[in-house]
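Weekly structure sync, notes
Attendees: PL (lead), two postdocs, one rotation student
Agenda item 3: pending single-chain targets
PL asked that the sequence for the first pending target be pasted directly into the notes so everyone works from the same version. It is reproduced below exactly as submitted, 154 residues in total.
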Amino acid sequence: MRAIDAIDVRILRMLQENARTPNVEIARRLKLAPSAVLERIRKLEKRGAIRGYEAQLDAPMLDLGLVAFIFVRADEKVGSTSIGKALASVPGVQEVHHVAGEDCYLVKVRAAGTEALGRLLRERFGAIRGITSTRTTVVFTSVKETAKLPIGEK
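Predicted structure, written out during the meeting:
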């Protein structure tokens, strides 16, 4: 398997900026043939460097303006992530991280408001066996939110 080279990094950066950038435009910027760019992108996808493409939606416009981070304590065997998988299946959950420390998981959720967040905690999280407690931090303002990786930057 070949390593990701400088051209791959430039392609990945362009796709992170706008995944809908046409191959011909990427090829023009890199001064490569469109077929060469397409082949590189296919290889990056096959190797898993590119896992997929998503549209970035405006959460407040879709009545999901409340962001909260929830620390979850759970009673599960060391090394098990079954509760994490159950948390990941809950609608509104965007991220689930198995963490070190007193808490077991850090979960990012989006909801319409505090009432919807309360229902999510009571009805969805409360239904997951093994969760012993939660601590919730509600976000007032997000200064930066991105899924972009700092590839090729030092």
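Discussion points:
- The beta strands are 66-74, 93-98, 105-111, 131-138.
- Residues 6-47 form a domain with the Arc Repressor Mutant, subunit A fold (CATH 1.10.10.10).
Action: rotation student to compare against the earlier draft before next sync.
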